[in-house]
């Protein structure tokens, strides 16, 4: 029997405001099955998109610092574009072990667009962070769209397993009314990976969707390659999920279990205190 303690297997902490980061976890876990995963989500303050940057930075720094005091973490992943934009460079200077984060893949989208019209979805913080003036001068039109409603629909879909594509289509109206319609869409928010079928169905023609899952998976594999070389191959190590607000939904608890987060704990960042729930 293999000892599964955190000192033997690499420990990967994945952070998001909600459940969107599970899409990143899913991708990475396929390539790095022999690791202990910790999923942290700030459900008390979800969604982040409309909150102030200072507020979000403070929260993320407190949560990540606290998790690092509780576990020896080999790699921290900000599986939230908004969090990465606000807190990644700050935390890189603060943590001893590597931290990486998802960032919208604007340059990848440029390689795919044929009609030179790109749609850019993300929280208002994410889409406004990038000045795309130079790209526009080079003849590429980028239509930014605040994905706030889509992010809420994504959480709803995870809980209900289904969402009408018409609801998603309504949110994409500014893309669909543009002439020409964008042929490439940047998914600048991790929640949107859960809405891929509905987004595709909303468009009259085939579109290319660009998300950051492959890039962050490649970065993770590279950063952990040394540690992983000498580890035993072991699958299905149960992970721990931390939330910041008590969860009453049995469905959500079961969803976390289906992702192999058998333990769910509440982390209280204000009072330095952890409750098992
Ligand atoms: N998943 C987050 C992101 O990638 C956004 C969700 C939120 O608004 O909190 O930006």
TrEMBL record:
Pfam families for the chain: Asp_Glu_race
Purpose: Provides the (R)-glutamate required for cell wall biosynthesis.
UniProt-recorded name of the protein: Glutamate racemase
Pathway: Cell wall biogenesis; peptidoglycan biosynthesis
UniProt keyword annotations, A-Z: Cell shape, Cell wall biogenesis/degradation, Isomerase, Peptidoglycan synthesis
GO MF: glutamate racemase activity
Source superkingdom: Bacteria
UniProt cross-references to SUPFAM superfamilies, sorted A to Z: Aspartate/glutamate racemase
Gene3D superfamilies hit by this protein: 3.40.50.1860
InterPro entries, alphabetized: Asp/Glu/hydantoin_racemase, Asp/Glu_race, Asp/Glu_racemase_AS_1, Asp/Glu_racemase_AS_2, Glu_race
Record-stated family: Belongs to the aspartate/glutamate racemases family.
